TrEMBL record:
Gene3D superfamilies: HAD superfamily/HAD-like. PANTHER family: HALOACID DEHALOGENASE-LIKE HYDROLASE DOMAIN-CONTAINING PROTEIN 3 (PTHR46191:SF2), PTHR46191. It comes from the Bacteria. InterPro entries: HAD-like_hydrolase_domain (IPR051828), HAD-like_sf (IPR036412), HAD_sf (IPR023214). The lineage of its organism: Bacteria, Pseudomonadati, Spirochaetota, Spirochaetia, Spirochaetales. This is HAD family hydrolase.
Length: 297
């Protein structure tokens, strides 16, 4: 689906994003010396950005103090009938997409949420052209996410990106949708430029989601041969013991568990795949991360 859009993303982010504070986790920090790495890859939701739902694309009840239908009516002048079970239709299409991709061999499938919404809209509005449905789907997908998942920069995230600038190669490996990099550009401004395009691996672009190691492998390949040969030169920072820490460490990367917010910290204590996995370090804020990389005060 084309990324060219007339949607005023900035207006929606300004209107529906408001300050959030991280909630303490009670997890003790573990601060080793990690100054041998020279590339840093980040998760987004729950790490660089506070996420009220804990992750991207979570279909749940409205949390933004405004119903999704009223947001759509106000912003798009589009009425979604009250008797249309929107969330159920979205879930149905996502599950259908997952089943198809799993049948094709993808272990951890990811959807392109604009395509999901286009199919849902096609069931609701049978008299709208395909081109118009595509335009509506993009804005609806964003508004739906903003109504379900409040986001705000994690304290210190922009500062640590600027500290890393010029010292490390920087990228992202994250479960994401088309609005994720747009949201990051809105929040981080010029600091977003520290990320190398080829080191930003977004799940929706790859049709697969974490914890699939192939996403991390692509980042290593794009870093270059020396990093494939020596993956311990790469540090991955994330808030999920399975999706982030276990997946990255399986390829030999160093790992840092970001335990800065209770809502998004995923320890996965009952998950067999993480029973013998330990992160190289644990930080509760980005000041601690800067210190163990040798760039903090």
């Amino acid at each position: 689906m084309s990324t060219v859009s007339s949607v005023d993303y900035g207006r929606h982010f300004c209107r529906y994003c408001s300050p959030l504070e991280p909630e303490p986790t009670g997890v003790p920090a573990l601060l080793p010396d990690l100054n041998t790495v020279d590339a840093v890859l980040f998760d987004v939701y729950g790490t660089l950005v506070i996420s009220s739902s804990g992750d991207v694309g979570t279909v749940m009840e409205d949390t933004a103090g405004d119903t999704f239908r009223s947001m759509v009516l106000r912003e798009m002048d589009l009425l979604i009938p009250e008797d249309v079970p929107v969330d159920e239709l979205v879930k149905e299409e996502i599950l259908k997409d997952h089943r198809q991709k799993k049948a094709g061999g993808t272990l951890h499938p990811e959807v392109e949420i604009r395509s999901i919404w286009k199919r849902v809209l096609g069931k609701i509005y049978t008299d709208i052209s395909s081109a118009k449905l595509s335009t509506l789907a993009e804005e609806l997908a964003l508004l739906h996410e903003l109504s379900r998942n409040r986001v705000w920069p994690m304290p210190g995230s922009r500062d640590v990106l600027e500290l890393l600038r010029g010292r490390f190669r920087i990228g992202v490996v994250s479960n994401a949708q088309f609005y994720t990099p747009l949201m990051m550009k809105h929040f981080f401004g010029e600091s977003f430029s520290v990320f190398e395009d080829k080191l930003c691996i977004w799940s929706y672009c790859e049709d697969m989601a974490k914890p699939d190691p192939a996403l991390f492998k692509k980042a290593l390949v794009n870093l270059g041969g020396e990093y494939l040969a020596h993956p311990s030169r790469v540090l991955y920072v994330g808030n999920d013991m399975l999706n982030d820490i276990a997946a990255a460490s399986s390829l030999g990367m160093r790992t840092l568990l970001f335990a800065g917010d209770r809502r998004s910290l995923r320890m996965r204590n009952s998950e067999p795949r993480v029973l013998h996995i330990q992160p190289d370090g644990i930080v509760k804020d980005f000041n601690q991360m800067a210190k163990i990389l040798g760039i903090g005060e």
